[in-house]
């Protein structure tokens, strides 16, 4: 295997013959000896054709859309509860209410509530919920990859998730709310159970959807007579765009939760997503014979850990700086490769071949990209609660304050087809290679712009609110009802829409990157690692609980804006050269190899 050098990284590339001279093909420079060779994993597509013909995505199988239905229901149930946690936990019961509903006479400006724990406790509980939900994907990934497979894992944990929903609904009933401490306890138990179910499903449902597509790089003649390349890479990009649309369609459909909570109380608001989620096991069973099911492959994750431990063993030092330098030196993975030892001297603990070591190396390279995402999710976390508190201090005119956050998924659902059918095809026609690294960088910049908008808006609210910066969301008149700033609540829509656009660029791309860059045996694990960055972000948010108070929101949002731009720029500069190897990375491992064959034949160099 040849390697592509990216400063300190080396990426294994498909083997090609030595080059002699270049050949021009439709304006593209192609090496003559390479032009007639086939692209690895393709159906009779040469490198010349791959470089010169237009690329288009393939059509999607029915089984992919069944998985989309599962994701829609799961996200409806998640956002149908999480979107109303802020008011449920933060605000007290409205005057005269036993369910959290606002009396009809004050629905124009009233805010639903139940437990009355305040902004900081609400933030802490919601942040823990996010941390827990996005840590649990590792549990689902290990179980699926090692023992049950993705399909069985999703079915079993969907039942676990359903139990949590039932508990949450029961502890929000009027009789339970008479004993707020019991309701708080029920909420915590429900968060634990639902988080386990949602997290385990989350790491498996996106790879399950993507693996329904099994097409390869191939040529196709369109009705117009044009010959094009059917590109799996573009197909996966489309799959994950529509998968993300399903996520946000579910979130947008949960828009009813805010109105139900305001008008009928929280037990009814929590009951609706419980009923919606109950369809998931039935959809999975109905489509059982249609799904492409990847069987579990044994303790591949434990094997991956053993490979890393063997490679890193002699390079670990008491001095962390020395350890880091040792890890970055060439040949990091050599100690774990069977081919590095003379015949008959291979250690007994090496039960893998060189190619598996290469797959582990590739997994680590993919995971390095995701390690930057906690700073992106810090920006996203503000629309999950703090911006709802901002909205509570504005003139509502009958709009529930926690309704506005649904603009985020609505904007994503509307914009995804526009990006898929207009923006990205236009860029391809113009010859602009808008690769995953560039898309992620753009997402960071747009997220920073969203936070700048939020900071400026909060400053105006401080100036206009009768209570100024002394908790505008809790500002009341003499009768105890809200006394908001004279700014229409829909002005806060800007950050929600901008974060939605940022997600299209960055979050969708991270899902696509997790699937296309991960070896077949570790797709759930890499997906779990990508999602775990949201949990890391939640952990960072825990450190910020003391500054998550309303009078500091301007500085909080402003600091996130600066962080997003700076971190995004560093991310792009770090992975600039890896970005140039995108096409080659996508064809690695797309050949016919299954399992461990031809030990010692192939190797992949590089650093951790």
Shape: globular
Q: Uncertain runs with pLDDT below 50, 5 residues or more?
A: 1-30, 588-607
Global mean pLDDT:
82
The largest β sheet comes out as: 3 strands, mixed
Number of strands: 9
Number of domains: 3
Strand % is: 5-15%
Total of DSSP H or I helical runs spanning 4+ residues: 26
Please state how the strands of the largest beta sheet are arranged side by side: 5-7-6
CATH top level class name of the largest domain: Mainly Alpha
**Termini gap:** 18 Å
Give the CATH architecture of the largest domain. Up-down Bundle
**How much helicity do the residues have?**
55-70%
The CATH homologous superfamily of the largest domain: MFS general substrate transporter like domains
Please give the radius of gyration in angstroms: 26 Å
Structural class computed from helices and strand pairing: mainly alpha
Describe this structure in words.
With 608 residues, this protein is mostly helical. The protein has three domains: 2-52, no CATH class; 62-298 and 361-585, MFS general substrate transporter like domains (Growth Hormone, Chain: A), CATH 1.20.1250; 302-352, no CATH class. 59% of the residues lie in helices and 6% in strands. The strands form four sheets. A three-stranded mixed β-sheet has the order 5-7-6. A two-stranded antiparallel sheet has the order 1-2. A hairpin with a 2-residue loop joins strand 3 (22-25) and strand 4. It is globular, with a radius of gyration of 26 Å. This is Peptide transporter PTR2B.
């Amino acid at each position: 295997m040849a390697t592509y050098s990216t400063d300190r990284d080396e990426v294994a590339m498909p083997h090609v013959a030595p080059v002699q001279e270049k050949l021009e093909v439709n304006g593209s420079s192609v090496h003559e000896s390479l032009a007639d060779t086939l692209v690895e994993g393709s159906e009779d597509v040469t490198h010349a054709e791959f470089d010169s013909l237009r690329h288009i995505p393939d059509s999607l199988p029915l089984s992919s859309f069944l998985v989309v239905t599962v994701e829609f229901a799961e996200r409806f149930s998640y956002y149908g509860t999480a979107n109303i946690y802020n008011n449920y936990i933060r605000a007290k019961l409205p005057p005269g209410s036993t369910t959290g509903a606002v009396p009809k006479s004050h629905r124009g400006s009233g805010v639903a509530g139940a437990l009355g724990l305040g902004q900081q406790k609400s933030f802490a509980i919601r942040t823990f919920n996010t941390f827990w939900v996005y840590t649990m994907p590792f549990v689902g990934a290990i179980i699926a990859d090692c023992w049950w497979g993705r399909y069985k894992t999703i079915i079993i944990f969907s039942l676990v998730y359903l139990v949590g929903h039932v508990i949450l609904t029961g502890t929000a009933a009027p009789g339970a709310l008479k004993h707020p401490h019991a309701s708080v306890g029920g909420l915590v138990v429900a968060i634990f159970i639902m988080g386990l179910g949602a997290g385990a499903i989350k790491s498996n449902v996106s790879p399950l959807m993507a693996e329904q597509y099994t097409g390869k790089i191939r040529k196709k003649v369109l009705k117009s007579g044009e010959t094009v390349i059917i590109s799996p890479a573009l197909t996966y990009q489309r799959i994950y765009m529509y998968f993300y649309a399903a996520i946000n369609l579910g979130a947008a459909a949960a828009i009813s939760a805010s109105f139900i909570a305001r008008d009928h109380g929280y037990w009814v608001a929590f009951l609706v997503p419980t009923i919606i989620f109950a369809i998931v096991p039935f959809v999975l069973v109905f489509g059982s014979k249609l799904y492409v099911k990847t069987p579990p492959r044994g303790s591949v994750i434990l094997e991956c850990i053993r490979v890393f431990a063997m490679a890193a063993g002699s390079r670990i030092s008491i001095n962390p700086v020395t350890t880091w330098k040792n890890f970055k030196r060439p040949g990091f993975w050599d100690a774990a490769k069977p081919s590095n030892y003379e015949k008959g001297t291979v250690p007994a603990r090496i039960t893998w071949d060189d190619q598996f070591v290469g797959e582990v190396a590739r997994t680590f390279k993919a995971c390095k990209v995701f390690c930057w995402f906690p700073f992106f999710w810090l920006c996203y976390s503000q629309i999950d609660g703090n911006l709802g508190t901002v909205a509570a201090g504005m003139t509502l005119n009958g709009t529930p304050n926690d309704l506005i956050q649904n603009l985020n998924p609505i904007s994503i659902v509307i914009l995804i087809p526009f990006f898929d059918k207009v923006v990205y095809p236009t860029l391809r026609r113009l010859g602009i290679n808008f690769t995953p690294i560039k898309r992620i960088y753009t997402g960071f910049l747009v997220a920073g712009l969203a936070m700048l908008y939020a900071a400026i808006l909060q400053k105006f609210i401080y100036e206009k609110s009768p209570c100024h910066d002394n908790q505008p969301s809790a500002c009341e008149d003499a009768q105890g009802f809200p006394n908001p700033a004279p700014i229409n609540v829909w002005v806060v829509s800007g950050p929600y829409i901008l974060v939605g656009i940022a997600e299209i660029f960055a979050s969708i791309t991270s899902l696509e990157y997790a699937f296309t860059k991960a070896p077949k045996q570790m797709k759930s694990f890499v997906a779990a690692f990508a999602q775990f960055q949201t949990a890391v972000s939640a952990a960072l948010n825990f450190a910020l609980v003391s500054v998550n108070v309303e009078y500091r929101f301007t500085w909080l949002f402003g600091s996130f804006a600066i962080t997003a731009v700076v971190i995004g720029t560093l991310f792009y500069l770090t992975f600039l050269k890896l970005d140039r190897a995108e096409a080659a990375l996508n064809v690695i491992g797309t050949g016919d190899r299954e399992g461990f064959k031809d030990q010692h034949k192939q190797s992949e160099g590089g650093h951790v």
